[in-house]
Task: inverse folding
């Protein structure tokens, strides 16, 4: 069995987007999926709605 990776807390807080957005959409998509992110941007992104994407590896 493979050992689990070490998880650590960062000593500093991450820099966040300073824009106040009324709504946010977060997606978790496969790294090989090249259509979902642009599609969601076209459908919902605006000055009031932000689209954020995290990609995960596809093995």
Result:
């Amino acid at each position: 069995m493979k050992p689990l990776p070490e998880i650590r807390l960062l000593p500093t807080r991450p820099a966040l987007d300073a824009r106040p957005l009324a709504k946010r959409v977060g997606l978790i998509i496969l790294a090989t999926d090249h259509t979902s992110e642009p599609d969601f941007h076209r459908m919902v992104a605006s000055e009031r709605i932000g689209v954020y994407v995290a990609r995960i590896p596809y093995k």
Notes: The two ends are 18 Å apart (CA to CA). Residues 2 and 59 are 16 Å apart (CA to CA). The first helix runs from residue 36 to 44.
